[in-house]
Amino acid sequence: MKRMMGVLMLTVGVAASAAGVSTTQQNVTVQVRGASGSAVRAPEVPFVPTPEGAVEGMLALAGVKPGDTVYDLGSGDGRIVISAVQKHGAKRAVGVDINPERISEANQNASQAGVKNKVEFRQGDLFDADIGDASVVTLYLLPSVNERLKPKLLAELKPGTRIVSHSFDMGDWAPTKTVESEGRTLYLWVVPERGTGGAPR
Fold first, then answer.
1. How does residue 48 score in pLDDT terms, banded at 50, 70 and 90?
2. Residue 66: DSSP 8-state
């Protein structure tokens, strides 16, 4: 009976995952073992692809244009990075994701789109990412992750850098602009000059 119950619970868990339902608390740090046997941090945010309409809405809200360098933190299958250079003319775009499967998928998608020479996908923790050369940063994370990321964004990004988040705000940092795109809320912030008090720390 215990074995049957175990199988039933496993089946329910798999079905929930396939339906996009979380069976764990996503903002809890989980330790897993990598190929080398060392502990690595598992993703805190479930992979939920950004709808194409929201991708275009985010990049339009950020005003992505030729000359921009776009960073997508938690880049998933690479669709925002690819669209930034392919449809909006960014000179370069970088995606950061902790999941090696997503990095592999993103690289394949970039090859198929013919933009491999303008994009880069880095496997790693977004909190450790070098983002100082970004002129635009895009996010589709969770409220708790946005809040923890805010000090890094304010400390490392140049004044004038545009930040766009899909669906989630950054607490007491009021957005410069908010728009609705296909029933989804998109938020824009602009990094203020140092010491102007334009954003909370």
1. confident
2. T
Do 135 and 20 meet the contact criterion of CB atoms below 8 Å apart? Answer: no
pLDDT (mean) for 38-58: 75
Pairing of strands 119-123, 39-41: unpaired
Residues 6+ apart with CB under 8 A from 185: 167, 178, 179
The pLDDT value given to residue 144: 94
Measured N-to-C along each axis, helices 79-86 and 100-113 cross at an angle, to the nearest 10 degrees, of 30
Please name the residue ranges forming H helices in the chain.
2-18, 52-61, 79-86, 100-113, 143-156
List, in order of start, the domains of the chain with CATH numbers: 2-41 (no CATH), 52-190 (3.40.50.150)
What does the buried/exposed string (b/e) look like for 110-148 if buried means 16 or more CB atoms within 10 Å of the residue's CB?
A: beebebeebbbbbeeebeebebeebbbbbbbbbeebbbe
Q: How many CB atoms lie within 10 A of CB 198?
A: 16
163-188 mean pLDDT: 95
pTM: 0.77
Cα 200 to Cα 58: distance, rounded to the nearest angstrom: 23
Crossing angle (nearest 10°) for helices 79-86 and 52-61: 60
* Residue 42: predicted pLDDT: 55
